[in-house]
Input
Amino acid sequence: MSNRAVISTPDAPAAIGPYSQAVKAGNTVWLSGQIPLVPETMEIVEGGIVEQAHQVFTNLAAVAAAAGGDLNNAVKLNISLTDLGDFNQVNEIMTGFLSQPYPARACVQVAALPRGVAIEVEAILVL
Output
């Protein structure tokens, strides 16, 4: 695909597997799932779900910026939580990073996430 570009930034964690931080094709950008890694140290942010969610959305915002947009360009978010009891707190954090109208979204509970974190979020942007 000639209009495909890999998006990468040091302002978000490096991939911990065989994937790119994001891939842009045309005016659509697919952001890989982000977990609450601190980019500079590649360690999990200290704290609970509030701190983890904040770090995840900070990481996603950095990748979105590297792609030439921001999280308000999101048309779809997929959120994975290890505890759906964290749903309301994640919603609060999310509203600090996005403005209305909000993107479409799915939120599911999963058995486990990489490195034992509580949250992972992926996004699709249209620029």
Observations:
- The first strand starts at residue 4 and ends at 7.
- The chain has one domain: 4-126.
- The two ends are 18 Å apart (CA to CA).
- The mean pLDDT is 97.
